[in-house]
Amino acid sequence: MAVTGSPELLIVMSAHATPEEVEHVVDRLAEAGADAHVTPGREATVIGAIGERDALAALPLEGYPGVEQVLPILKPYKLVSRELSPDPTVIEVRGRRIGDDAFGLVAGPCTVEYREQTLETARAVAQAGSTMLRGGAFKPRTSPYTFSGLGEEALTILVEAREETGLPIVTELMDPRHVEAVLEHADVIQIGARNMQNFTLLSEVGRADKPVLLKRGPAASIEELLMAAEYVVKEGNARVILCERGITTFERATRYTLDISAIPVLKQETHLPVIVDPSHAAGRRELVLPLARAAVAAGADGIIVEVHPRPEEALCDGPQQIPVADFPDFADEIRTLAHLMGRQIG
Ligand code: PEP
Ligand code: MN
């Protein structure tokens, strides 16, 4: 039977349920044409059941051995909701972690412009203890007359930077035609703010075997961001990192308005890690550190910041990039604040 419904039920197993009892529930769900998402929690295993409402209703789930409770999932987002997984999701890439007690410091140039610019930045951010390296190969630009990235050539430069520094690389995927190239080279696939509701692209990366960094659209609500993440997770890719990067408001003093409240709200609503991009929100480098501090204090699981050896020469987003020379102090301060919040840089 085709699964056309949405996940409807949360089946909470008792703390003492055996793996066989969990399997039994999953098998019965499968027989009813439903899909089961098993989340082993610290306290108990939770099974999210996706399927036809009527088929699910016909199962005597509460009577199965090991089942403690059966609850409807009331939120429109299901698989990403806190209800499904009370424990935080930790994303691990090449031994680097983001989520729970691991704070992600992702840093690097806005755009891969040329080999030396990227390598110099990569060395500096690695030296300062960053978790991952960012760098755009395919750039979404407001004006079609501006530099839109080196494309596949940039991917090979990023790979060289990873080989030298060991840092996993995060880069944006804009077009399904580049999926293969980006998947082959990147460690984390970034879906940019402008593509947050590109549903075919979301489903595409949902079938990929790489974590996804999903940025909030500048005009998207928190619920829309979570629904976008649901598109990815629904396809089977549970490794999604959410990113608040500022929203459009009437305010003109900053490039966007960083929605600090999105951090605690998201942390309440989802088990996925939530990071903050103070660079694009601010648009001005002198605001990046204060906004990053606020993000750490509000409970973010990480930040992603733009760093350039000579921002005044940058081909994209120069005013908001932190000079390489200033990055060690920046990283030290973030590390200290993260410690205060009970986090280690992952
Ligand atoms: C970026 O991170 O390079 C970027 C373009 O950000 P956003 O999609 O948030 O505008
Ligand atoms: Mn940028």
Describe the overall structure.
The chain has helices at residues 19-31, 53-57, 115-127, 152-165, 179-185, 199-206, 222-234, 262-269, 278-282, 288-297, 327-340; strands at residues 7-13, 35-40, 45-50, 67-72, 91-93, 96-98, 102-108, 132-134, 169-172, 188-191, 212-215, 240-244, 274-276, 302-308, 322-323, 344-345. It is of the alpha/beta class and 346 residues long. The protein has an eight-stranded parallel barrel with strand order 7-8-9-10-11-12-13-14, surrounded by eight helices. Helix 6 links the parallel strand 10 (188-191) and strand 11 (212-215). The longest helix is centred in the middle third of the chain and has 14 residues, at 152-165. The radius of gyration is 21 Å and the shape is elongated. The model has no long low-confidence stretch (mean pLDDT 95). Bound molecules: phosphoenolpyruvate and manganese (II) ion. Phosphoenolpyruvate binds next to loops.
**What ranges have pLDDT less than 50 throughout 5 or more consecutive residues?**
none
Please, how many helices?
Answer: 11
CATH class of the largest domain: Alpha Beta
Task: Name the helicity range.
Answer: 25-40%
Q: Which class do the helix and strand fractions yield?
A: alpha/beta
Query: How much strand?
Result: 15-25%
- Compressed to H and E, one letter per element, the order equals EHEEHEEEEHEHEHEHEHEHEHHEEHE
How far is it from the N-terminal to the C-terminal residue, by CA? 43 Å
Bound molecules: phosphoenolpyruvate, manganese (II) ion
User: How are strands sequenced across the largest beta sheet?
Assistant: 7-8-9-10-11-12-13-14
Mean pLDDT: 95
The biggest sheet, with number of strands, parallel, antiparallel or mixed sense and barrel status, is: 8 strands, parallel, barrel
As for the number of domains, it is 2
CATH topology of the largest domain: TIM Barrel
**CATH architecture call of the largest domain:** Alpha-Beta Barrel
Computed CA radius of gyration, to the nearest angstrom: 21 Å
The CATH superfamily label of the largest domain reads: Aldolase class I
